[in-house]
């Protein structure tokens, strides 16, 4: 039995969800550097998956290799690119400025490498990275969960997580973030897994494909 199943399974509702949904398949390490992951997140803001991937792919074509193989321009290269070339990728003015800010922050060390990120706590990374333009707490939480493989992240502002918890508990309305944080504290250190099950519960019964980020 997976380590998380004992703790999460001690809750009858979660035990039933685990039995129904199956083992957690959370992809905790996508192999990206934090810098790359943040650029991808900015490209995808307020867009559906296919459109976001297309824009990010165009950005990758502007990198040093120019292959569009998933590697965006290095920080120095991105800062050298003209506004016209970046806008031609489909980036808005706000996203362009946010990406340039992330690039500069990588050069000055505010955005850490994967190796440096390993020495920092979740909250230290959140506090540091939310100072950047276009980067909110939710974006950093996704970085923690899907790039840095942090096991104990509960993104309480995420609508899907809140909706999944509402269904789990049979509530009329999704819980407020503060209440959700308090109610899920006892599931530490497996709250990333709990969030994954909440996403799956929120999607149950829907005909649309699972969110490619959280699937």
From TrEMBL:
Please give a single GO biological process term from the UniProt record: base-excision repair, AP site formation
The family assignment reads: Belongs to the alkylbase DNA glycosidase AlkA family.
Its lineage opens with: Bacteria, Pseudomonadati, Pseudomonadota, Alphaproteobacteria, Acetobacterales
Question: Which InterPro entries does the record associate with it?
Answer: Alkylbase_DNA_Glycosylase/TA, Alkylbase_DNA_glycsylse_CS, DNA_glycosylase, HhH-GPD_domain
A cellular component term, taken from the record's GO annotations: protein-DNA complex
Name the record gives this protein: DNA-3-methyladenine glycosylase II
Q: Does the keyword DNA damage apply?
A: yes
In terms of Pfam families, this protein maps to: HhH-GPD
Membrane-spanning intervals of the chain: none
Which Gene3D superfamilies does UniProt cross-reference here? 1.10.1670.40, Hypothetical protein, domain 2 (1.10.340.30)
């Amino acid at each position: 039995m997976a380590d998380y199943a004992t703790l999460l399974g001690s809750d009858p509702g979660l035990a039933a969800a685990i039995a129904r949904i199956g083992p957690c398949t959370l992809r905790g390490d996508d192999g990206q550097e934090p810098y790359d992951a943040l650029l991808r997140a900015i490209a995808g803001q307020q867009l559906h998956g296919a459109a976001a991937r297309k824009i990010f792919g165009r950005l990758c074509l502007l990198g040093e290799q120019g292959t569009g193989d998933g590697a965006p321009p290095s920080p120095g290269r991105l800062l050298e690119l003209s506004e016209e070339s970046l806008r031609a990728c489909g980036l808005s003015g706000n996203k362009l400025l946010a990406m340039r800010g992330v690039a500069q922050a990588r050069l000055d060390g505010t955005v850490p490498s994967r190796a440096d990120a390993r020495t920092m706590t979740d909250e230290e990374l959140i506090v540091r990275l939310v100072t950047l333009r276009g980067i909110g707490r939710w974006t950093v939480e996704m970085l923690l969960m899907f790039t840095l493989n942090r096991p104990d992240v509960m993104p309480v502002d995420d609508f899907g997580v809140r909706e999944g918890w509402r269904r789990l508990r049979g509530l009329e309305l999704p819980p407020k973030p503060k209440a959700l944080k308090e109610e899920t504290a006892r599931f530490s250190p497996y709250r990333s897994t709990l969030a994954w099950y909440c996403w799956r519960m929120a999607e149950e019964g829907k005909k649309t494909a699972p969110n490619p980020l959280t699937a």
